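Progress against Task 2.4 (sequence-to-structure conversion) is shown through the following example record, which the project officer requested during the mid-term review.
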Amino acid sequence: MVPSPLAADQLELEGQRLKLIGLNPGESEAATAVRIPSTRTLIAGDTAYQQVHAYLVNADAAWRAQWLKNIEQLDKRGATTVIPGHRAEKAALGPTALRETAAYIRDFEASLRRPRTWMASSAPCSRSTVHSSSLSSSTSARRRRSRRRRSADSGTLGPR
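Structure tokens generated for the chain above:
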């Protein structure tokens, strides 16, 4: 059996009508959300993330803008339960998933517009500035053994 595209924008499953919502490229090139009107549930798929970092690596400015439009389109559906495609294990299944994702994308966009600044300090931070007294004894001992091994490999005497 070869799958074929659906001609309709809805399905019926176990007596429940499922509305299919085609989305424009945003988080991914092609996406579909599913709305279950009888339970006011929206299966948002990859359009929504909740309490996890949104995957923005492949989304340029145009895709991020369209992603926001997709979120707005889904949020207008008035779902009380939203099932995001990506979420923290204990995140609640509510409309906040859409709003959190939109806020995340907007914050990301704002960060791209901010001038880049680098923190200047009078002295660079280096590994040597970490004192062994601030390390646990096992970490300190492990570092001493590692230094001895490196010294032995190079043929010089290292600190004991």
